[in-house]
Amino acid sequence: MNQKTESEKVINNIKLALGLISNKNKVNLHEPDFSNSNAKKYLNSCIDSGWVSSAGDWVNKFENKISEITGSKYAVAVSNGTVALRLSLHCAGVNRTDEVLLPPMSFIATANAVAHLGANPHFIDIEADSLGMCPIALEKRLSDIAIIKDGNVINKETGNFIKAVLPVHVFGLAPKINEIKSICNTWNLPIIEDAAEALGSYITFKNNLIHAGCIGDIGTISFNGNKIITTGGGGVIITNDKKTADLARHLSTTAKINHPYEFFHDQIGWNDRLPNLNAALGVSQLELLENILEKKHKLHKVYKNIFKSSDNFEIISQPKNTKSNYWLITLRLKFDNPLKIRNEILINANMNGILLRPSWNLISDLPMYLDCQKGDLKVAVDQSNRLINLPSSPKLLKN
Ligand SMILES: *Cc1c(COP(=O)(O)O)cnc(C)c1O
């Protein structure tokens, strides 16, 4: 088998899918789009009114729109997705030295949010279908190392409390959250769903289509510049639990007690609130979401058709009983030893101005997290070598 030919085939297929004739402009992985939107109008209204910072109507409007789209009772807008995760974990009772179970294949922020609280990531393997946390691996790891004592889940090996489970919706694909939930119910562990990449993704739960982040106890979404919609920088906590929402809101605004003039703070809070400017941009972006999702599904179909006759490559599709937002469309290499070919494709494509990206290095392999507790991570190790994310901006769709 000629590797050069394989990588040329992939690049030709991408060019074909995107209708690229000459390559004058670089093709990025994912770009925000503000054309045909109310972005400037809404931003100007902030500036004209003087309300640009973390109080103002647009923050409420943004939160209401998020509630409407996700079906979550409460939405608390914060300054980014990492902060949303850290605040959610804190609200779920995660403290210093506690352990949080999470997959190793995610953006670094998932583990960092745990570490920012002085807690410890504890890695659980993924499954290939959804690229998300594997319920079987979760169940096995818990039964191998955990005991329940006085109502607490304790890691026998470290003596630390296991306080929460943190599954991730990777590239917009939903993990097997129903199965994860039933395991967490058995162990009485809260679920925080990292749905940073998954605005517009859904899972069937008890015959209803439920938005990502709404089956667990708390969900978080990011609105960073490269996500499906952006607020410039921003995040949101979604939950159906009023107590959690109230606490998150209170702690995100320096834990200040409402009063006409007194400064009284009853806890150590954070300054985590989303500024009005960012929320205004966010509202203008949310108005485009339906259209973006439609284009994403069309682009996925185009890629899927172009790669469908290939034995060695596969475009990953939404798992059964889920609807993906296809934030990033992913090519899976099916070779026995994919790493060399993967790297060749990455080098060739980037030289051609098509900025393909591999999936992340596993968090469990990064220097800060090498000593963390972990189960057997063989699926994550294998999958991380065979994934390439394709240019997925909605505006790349050629009609
Ligand atoms: C982007 C992302 C985050 C962090 O969001 P920021 O807004 O960049 O802080 C967390 N988890 C995952 C899986 C992400 O992709």
Structural class: alpha/beta
Secondary structure: number of strands:
17
Specify the number of helices: 12
| Largest sheet report | 4 strands, mixed
Give the ordered list of helices and strands.
HHHEHEHEHEEEHEEEEEHHHEEEHEEHE
Proportion of β residues?
15-25%
**What's the oligomerization state?**
single chain
Question: Would you mind describing this structure in some detail?
Answer:
This protein is an alpha/beta fold and 399 residues long. Helices cover 36% and strands 16% of the residues. The protein contains twelve helices and 17 strands. Strand 4 (146-149) and strand 5 form a beta hairpin. The protein is globular and about 70 Å long. The mean pLDDT is 95. Residues 80-82, 106-107, 109-110, 168, 194, 196-197, 222, 224, 235 line the site of pyridoxal-5'-phosphate.
